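Supplementary notes for students who missed Thursday's class. We covered one full example, reproduced here. Read the sequence, then the structure, then the short commentary at the end.
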Amino acid sequence: MVREMKYTEIGKIPVEWRLQTFEETFCILSNNTLPRSDLNDHGGIVRNVHYGDILTRFGEVLDCEKDEIPYLNDVSSLTASAQVLQDGDVILADTAEDDTVGKATEVYSLGKGRMVAGLHTIPCRVKKGDFVPKWLGYYLNSSVYHNQVLPYVTGIKVSSISKTAISETLIAVPPLEEQKAIVSALSEVDQLLAELKKVISKLRDFKRGCLYLMFPQEGSDIPQMREPGDTKPWKRCKLSDLVLIERGGSPRPIDDYITDSPQGLNWVKIGDAPTQGHYITKTSEKIRPEGLSKTREVHPGDLILSNSMSFGKPYIMGTDGCIHDGWLLIRDICHVFDLTFLCHLLGIPQMLEQYRSLAAGSTVNNLNKELVGNTVVTIPNIDEQKVLGQCLEQLDRLIALHQQKIDKYAQIKKAMMSELITGKIRLA
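Structure (token representation):
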């Protein structure tokens, strides 16, 4: 059966669906302006929804029974006008550093708990329209709605929206049975994503445990866990005695050297590093060969270590390229390391603690070649390095595999939302 559609300001939707403005749908509640320093993750009486958590931690639906929501340190810091949230309320982040501004979450399963909306949020409560739980959370985060919000975003470095500006944006109101069917389908995908995230969390915990047992702890030269037959103590060495360490460099102004030419040199930036795994195999930008004398060239098999931002994060080069001064080159010129082992070694907690300790006296918490060179490493023979490297690499691959599944299902969910939220695909 072909169902009739109608043309509206948000595109074609089923004729049975209604549209109403944001202002018609919601009344605006009060929020507080308490900073992150006034919150904690340990416990309290009243929970607080901070805009940063909406942007980075919470999904379309804020499940108050499952999600970790910060508490207020001091309830007395709330003003008399503070309004307690309830199930079905939605909270929008009115500020962000990019176009995620306007991201929303719907309060769900709050029960008798007390919760308020915090800094840079627009808390809303339905005053008109019938909505099943979770529908508004999904709708307000759909591209159909977010594309309505974007024209009202202001600011250059920081993006913002106001409740007045978005008052005329449109909310779709399908029949309740359709809302239920759509919410059910999207919730099933969310449940699958949640289970995969739990698996990744457990794998990461397992890897942390392996790193603790497989590498000697402070004051020891023997790890707690190793292959049968490996009994020799590990050797303690100054890192600069084993590897070449050099800082990257950048031709300036860099914009004058960026090129689209196939003859350009790969320009390695932190954004080129993988979210899972250690190999950098491609770059998003290239620089002209004329800039080579002002930078540092790296080759497959070289390690690079971030010296700012994602402080002390090591990666293995899988391609030729050039690095700026936000990276350190680490090259195994003495051929004493298994590459995979060295990459994991540079990122273990003991090394990160050395980086932090040695950098503590500097005015900027950055790494430099002298600081990294002064760290002390404890290493086994090359055969034991290879065994450890292979074991940790297998764990990384398993984590990456599950992350790929998450990314795949997230894309499927995004496509489902686009089709279901507009009624292009009907489930009821």
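Commentary. The mean pLDDT is 93. The chain is about 30% helix and 20% strand. If anything here is unclear, bring it to office hours.
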